[in-house]
Automatic annotation (TrEMBL):
<dbReference type="InterPro" id="IPR050191">
    <property type="entry name" value="ATP-dep_DNA_ligase"/>
</dbReference>
<dbReference type="InterPro" id="IPR012310">
    <property type="entry name" value="DNA_ligase_ATP-dep_cent"/>
</dbReference>
<dbReference type="InterPro" id="IPR014146">
    <property type="entry name" value="LigD_ligase_dom"/>
</dbReference>
<feature type="domain" description="ATP-dependent DNA ligase family profile">
    <location>
        <begin position="144"/>
        <end position="226"/>
    </location>
</feature>
<protein>
    <recommendedName>
        <fullName>DNA ligase (ATP)</fullName>
        <ecNumber>6.5.1.1</ecNumber>
    </recommendedName>
</protein>
<feature type="compositionally biased region" description="Basic and acidic residues">
    <location>
        <begin position="1"/>
        <end position="17"/>
    </location>
</feature>
<dbReference type="InterPro" id="IPR012340">
    <property type="entry name" value="NA-bd_OB-fold"/>
</dbReference>
<dbReference type="GO" id="GO:0016874">
    <property type="term" value="F:ligase activity"/>
</dbReference>
<dbReference type="InterPro" id="IPR012309">
    <property type="entry name" value="DNA_ligase_ATP-dep_C"/>
</dbReference>
<dbReference type="Pfam" id="PF04679">
    <property type="entry name" value="DNA_ligase_A_C"/>
</dbReference>
<comment type="similarity">
    <text>Belongs to the ATP-dependent DNA ligase family.</text>
</comment>
<feature type="region of interest" description="Disordered">
    <location>
        <begin position="1"/>
        <end position="37"/>
    </location>
</feature>
<keyword id="KW-0436">Ligase</keyword>
<dbReference type="Pfam" id="PF01068">
    <property type="entry name" value="DNA_ligase_A_M"/>
</dbReference>
Amino acid sequence: MKDRPRSKPLLADDRPLKGWVRKPRDPSQPNLPFDPMPERVEPCLALLKQKPPSGPQWLYEIKFDGYRLAIHVDHGRVRAVTRGGHDWTDRFPAIVAAARKLDVATAILDGEAVVLDEEGRPDFGALQQSLGGRGGRLPSDAIFYAFDLLYFDGHDISGMELSSRRHLLESLVHGDDRTIRLSETIDGSGAQIFEAACRHGLEGIIAKDRDSPYRSGRTGDWLKVKCVASDSFMIVGYERSPAARGQIGSLILAAYKKGVLVHVGSVGTGFKQKQTSELRSLLDRLVTKKPPVSIEGRRPDVVWVEPVLIAEIEYRAFTHDGKLRHASYKGLREVQDNAAVFKIED
């Protein structure tokens, strides 16, 4: 049996696309010739694995470090919907403007909004700053990497296999648009691609079953392998330092264990000047006398804050006593982006 090509599987020949599974029609519109366009599709999420899978059924892509978005195009009207279902259209004006120019009447594109650093790598902190900080509404220089197509020209194509959905996506997203770009598949073995991604300072890779339909949740159709761990933790305080930016020496972090916040260490690196000033302003509004978590030893320089702000933290591992190793601050996440505070398993 010949191995199927890994990239652009349907562009090299004239085989017909497999048919899609249609949803029941809206009874109030019995003569509607197209599938109703959904207001929102619960996203397919990648399941975390320690090693990349191998085999001809897997497509490999770079894992992007940004905000997951679904771009809805409906006859010139465009919406940008977050993973949690919130409308962030006004936060991504450049992406919305580019989506209006796509050569399609109706479509839903799944992808990631990112800002690239000087070396062309996704930079979550830069993305947050481009959005004007927490809750900002400033113009953004973010770009959108599209990696799936769920609805196309009046048809629900989520039931088609991934390779066919990508074929249609590639016909829609062209290289001449620098704001909406195609997330390219990469040829090679999963292990080699993962090693290369880590060597180039990327967050990791995503492996996707080429024959899978689009299914919401963590079904195992998509797998993620990270070069370094990155998760969301609650900020419960900070240690003052006159020599540090914004006088924040480090942030005190917590995660959930059996529904209760527990201390998981601190982070004192990764801050940028503008980030730190804005962060200090937010923290000062949340100061409380009661510690949200119990902490070992006396900490006279700690300022406790109400557990409201969620930080994205990059780290290598947990120590034997449950603290983060080599932690680095990446930026604040928002509940609207479906940010979930890390839960410690028993």
